[in-house]
Design goal:
- The chain has 337 residues and is mostly helical.
- The chain has one domain.
- 74% of the residues lie in helices and 1% in strands.
- The chain is built from twelve helices and two strands, in the order αββααααααααααα.
- Strands 1-2 form a two-stranded antiparallel ribbon.
- Helix 1 runs antiparallel to helix 2 and helix 3 packs antiparallel against helix 4.
- 47% of the residues are buried.
């Protein structure tokens, strides 16, 4: 089977399986039907099942099986997928029985450390520690950003879609097929999650997807498909929002692990854009970052630096405008035209 046909087969299988399993998770009475009840810090107003991530992970599993059967997968790729499925299983157990925050964090550290040990990505203890913390942060920030209809699924669609294109162009066919499968699985889930959402992704999907964003980014870097800045730029919309929000809350002395409604996307929803308007604007930013990252792969170092600088500047401008609008909103002033 050729590279293109293998990629297409993985994507089609992932979409079909993700759509079917997510549909089952939406049905009351299913053992995977866990309701997320709204509280003072939620953006939704009615109880909604939160196990859509099971459908996403099932779709990814289908894509992985197709990839292994048609073209094979190296140790690094298998380690990334294995780590994601371990995290998904632990988060599903947490939804059913409840696990302590310390145990969840320990599991993430062990999975990230195991991935780095198996792949040999780290270069020295300092680099290894930085990558370990980065992988754990990616899983958690993706979880933090999964709080509005269509947002986390959209980031997976655009982010891993960009990964698939770059990996295909770089000759990493197995990596391209898996990334295309992740994007397709997210698309199947989005059929039920775009506003008004019938189901949420939940921790069982968001944490593994964040881990995969970091792990597959490192797999592609190790394979020479892209430089290290590429995955950071592709997932910049989520990285920027979550990191800035965390730093602000830490500087204010808040308990950063507690639920809140101070992310940029949460403020956009609260200011009247709603879930749909927020998601569509976020999609524009996601698509722009993905396109800029892909364009930068074909350019020299100076132009790559210019693209990265422009994307950082764009995020700072967007953040400033949201902050200013939020202050006006809190003060009861009319919104700017």
């Amino acid at each position: 089977m050729g590279v293109e046909s293998g990629l297409l087969a993985a994507a089609v299988a992932a979409f079909a399986v993700a759509w079917g399993v997510t549909c089952l998770c939406c049905r009351p009475g299913s053992w995977l039907y866990f309701l997320d009840h709204p509280n003072a810090r939620s953006l939704h107003v009615r109880p909604t099942p939160r196990t859509g991530g099971v459908g996403v992970m099932a779709g990814i599993a289908a894509a992985a099986l197709v990839t292994i059967a048609t073209g094979g997968a190296g140790r690094a790729l298998l380690a990334a997928l294995g780590g994601a499925f371990v995290l998904a299983g632990l988060r599903l157990a947490d939804d059913r029985s409840g696990l302590s925050a310390r145990l969840r964090l320990l599991a993430q550290l062990l999975v990230a450390g195991g991935f780095l040990a198996l792949t040999g990505v780290a270069g020295g203890w300092a680099m290894g520690l930085l990558l370990l913390l980065g992988l754990v942060w990616m899983g958690n920030l993706y979880n933090f950003m999964d709080g509005s209809d269509g947002l986390a699924g959209g980031m997976a669609l655009f982010g891993f879609g960009a990964f698939a294109w770059a990996a295909g162009q770089g000759g990493a066919s197995a990596l391209a097929a898996v990334c295309a499968g992740v994007a397709a699985a997210a698309a199947g889930f989005l059929c039920f999650n775009f506003h008004p959402a019938r189901i949420f992704m939940g921790d069982v999907g968001s944490v593994p997807l964040g881990f995969l964003g970091g792990a597959l980014g490192l797999v592609g870097w190790r394979a020479g498909a892209w430089p290290l800045w590429f995955p950071l730029l592709v997932f910049a919309p989520f990285i920027f929002d979550a990191t800035v929000t965390l730093l602000r809350r830490a500087l204010r002395g808040e308990k950063v692990w507690q639920a809140h409604r101070s992310h940029y996307y949460q403020r956009m929803v609260q200011m009247g854009l709603g879930h749909r308007g927020t998601a569509l604007r976020a999609y524009g930013l996601m698509a722009g970052c993905g396109a800029a990252a892909l364009a930068g792969l074909r350019m020299g170092f100076s132009l790559q630096c210019a693209i990265i600088t422009m994307c950082i500047t764009a995020h700072l401008i967007v953040g400033y405008r949201i902050d200013r609008a939020w202050r006006r909103h809190r003060a009861g002033e009319p919104a700017e035209p």
